[in-house]
Structure formats: C-alpha cells, structure tokens
Amino acid sequence: MPLHEEHKKRAGRNYALGGILLAMVALFFVVTLAKLGVI
Asked: Are 39 and 30 in contact (CB under 8 A)?
C-alpha cells in the first residue's frame, strides 16, 4: 500500500507532537529534580 501525501503529513505531525511531549516530560523531570535539590 503506497503512502499518500496525507499519510506523510499525519506521520510528520505525529513525530512533531511526540517530540514536544518528550521535551515537556524531560523539562518536568529536570524541574522536579531541581526542586528536590538533586541538581
């Protein structure tokens, strides 16, 4: 089954959202460690 343009757009959007989500999780992790005085 060939990938159509819509599938490529959706995949790109999913990767972008995944990256943003990952960045937010990492940020919360660092903020939490900072509040605990670990770093």
From this structure: yes
pLDDT digits (tens, 9 = 90+) for 8-22: 888 889 999 999 999
**Cα dist from 4 to 1, 8, 10, 36, 37, whole Å:** 9, 7, 10, 48, 50
* CA torsion through residues 6, 7, 12, 15, sign: positive
Inter-residue contact 21 to 14 (CB < 8 Å): no
- The predicted model scores a pTM of 0.67
First to last CA, the chain: 50
